[in-house]
Amino acid sequence: MLSIGREAIFNADDPNSAHFFLLRGRTEILRLRPVLGILSESCGQAGAADYLEYFLTAAENLKKTPYLVLLASRSDLSVFELRPSDLWGAVLVYEYRLLGFGSSLFTAGDYNGSRAVIAPAKLRRQVSAAVCRYLMDRGAQIVLLNLEPGSPDSCQICFEGAMAGSTKCWWGTQRREVGATIALYTSFDATLARMGKHTRRNMRYYRRKAEAELGCSFVADVKGTLTMARLVELNYSSTHPVPHSILERRYQTTRSMDGFFCVGLRGPDGQWISLLGGRRHHGVTEVDWQMNRDGLAKHSVGTVIRSYLIEHEIAIGMRKLFFEGGTPHSMRHSFLSEEAMDIVVMNRTLPVFLLRNMARWLRPEKHFLLQTLMSPAVKWQLR
């Protein structure tokens, strides 16, 4: 477990230096949500902290301990007195727990590189390198961060400066394609025109087929009519049922958290055929989940609800449609070209050596950290 508190590591008069503050746990971190919201706006990352509570309480993150590292220009205030203008940046990481204890393995919970590291674009790699050094000096064995792509040369310079005088460690970077965003244009037809011929045809054909044969209709806001009992029934009859805990989370966040939405396809008997939920902010619609009733493969209801969704989001003025975690749907071929950069630092210790060698037998498909350690795309450098 990391020691909690603050420490000035660099010269406060140096504009490239910072005082470090460390917070542990969801309750403490959420107290800084207003500050992080303003900071993200000023750094050109609008929305990065808007749904902080939602991501902190995600099922995969509840198994980890969250830490927030702040880089401030002053040390004469307590962490909760800091203003956005006092901060160089903020980084949210999660520590894996093993048998209830900290593992010293830290990872960002942000596959796309848009939320974990909040800092001005020109300082983002420098902030990432400084936080990696800060955590490694306090006992971390591995730190993995995700952020927007940058040149290897800039990372080299940042890490050489940040890691100077540290114990020997390995660090590396890789760039990944993370396209999961569709640009929304001025009309439904204009948006479809940017998609492939096959996708355009299916969007129109299956929508007409579902309307004619299923008598379904699109509901743009199901909050007032969706009950937990109805959600349970659809889940039980869906193509990919989820555990009740996940279902309950979807229901509660949709009904109680600002910015969340849920749209649906409903049959003439009032039965839900498909539901789709997510979040909206700053002109971006983010899709988190979708449930489709089983036995309707020939109607492709997943395609139908996405067709309605695109048209609706354009109508209310949204500019982009993002699918959290991507999608196997053919519309993926129309995603905007987007990349993320992974930065990973690890100590040259026996536990880390054993973990890397055992990673392939530890179900790496379930753990992005293990995938990164095994990735041949990571170019490792010794410091």
Task: Describe this protein's structure.
The protein is of the alpha+beta class and 383 residues long. It contains twelve helices and 16 strands. It has helices at residues 26-30, 33-42, 52-56, 124-137, 152-162, 188-192, 197-213, 228-236, 244-256, 301-315, 350-358, 368-374, and strands at residues 5-8, 19-24, 64-72, 87-98, 101-107, 117-118, 142-147, 169-177, 181-183, 217-219, 260-266, 272-281, 284-292, 320-323, 339-347, 379-382. Strands 1, 2, 3, 4, 5, 6, 7, 8, 15 and 16 form a ten-stranded mixed beta sheet that branches. Strand 11 (260-266) and strand 12 (272-281) form a beta hairpin. The relative contact order is 0.14. Mean pLDDT is 86; it is low at 3-15.
Rg, rounded, reads 23 Å
Oligomer class:
single chain
SSE succession: EEHHHEEEEHEHEEHHEHHEEEHEEHHE
Structural class designation: alpha+beta
| Beginning-to-end CA distance, first to last residue | 24 Å
Largest sheet, described in full?
10 strands, mixed
Q: What's the tally of helices?
A: 12
As a percent range, the share of strand residues is 25-35%
Shape: elongated
Mean pLDDT: 86
Low-confidence segments: 3-15
Total beta-strand segments: 16
Helix content: 25-40%
